[in-house]
Specification:
The chain has four helices and seven strands; from the N terminus they run E-H-E-H-E-E-E-H-E-E-H. It is an alpha+beta fold. The chain has one domain: Beta Barrel (Small Protein B, Chain: A), CATH 2.40.280.10. The protein has a seven-stranded antiparallel β-sheet. The radius of gyration is 19 Å and the shape is globular. The relative contact order is 0.22. The mean pLDDT is 83.
Length: 161
């Protein structure tokens, strides 16, 4: 019997996850980056509701910037609130930034945020170096996943009998 189709929850420590990224992109490498936030943004993140779906990162002037991350306004801070989709600076080591500059320019790869979470008192973003999938690649990955499920189901049924 099919289970109820409710909204899937994020992992316990996560504020937001980009669930479509694995479907749209082939992920090659991941990095953990700090994120520069304002006070109302931190409070709004702790309340939840951030959206990573259309977000992406770019390297500009030796710095990594996160674009289109939506953090909803913090209701109690009516006058001193932040812009919901402003560009936010990511904090990475210099070597990591230089590596990202080389790979994104050479091979045409993109930087996709995978999840947003708190590590202690600090907000962190996991970004992935990714290559876009074609429609054919998406169908192949779905087919491989379905075949894997069918094999697991057949093995489980064989063990029962």
């Amino acid at each position: 019997m099919a289970k109820g189709k409710g909204k899937k929850k994020t992992a316990p420590g996560d504020v937001a996850t980009n669930r479509q990224a694995r479907h749209r992109f082939t992920l090659l490498d991941t990095y953990e980056a700090g994120i520069v936030l304002r006070g109302t943004e931190v409070k709004a993140l702790r309340n939840g509701g951030a959206t990573l779906k259309d977000a992406y990162a770019t390297v500009r002037d030796g710095e990594v910037w996160l674009h289109h991350l939506h953090i909803p306004p913090y209701a109690p801070a009516y006058h001193d609130n932040h812009e919901p989709e402003r560009d936010r600076k990511l904090l990475l080591h210099r070597r990591e930034i230089e590596k990202l500059v080389g790979t994104t320019k050479e091979r045409g790869l993109t930087l996709v945020p995978m999840r947003l979470y708190f590590k202690g008192p600090k907000a962190k973003v996991e970004i992935a170096l990714a290559q876009g999938k074609d429609r054919f690649d998406k169908r192949e990955s779905i087919k491989a996943r379905e075949m894997g499920r069918d094999m697991q189901r057949a093995l489980r049924d064989a063990e029962r009998h």
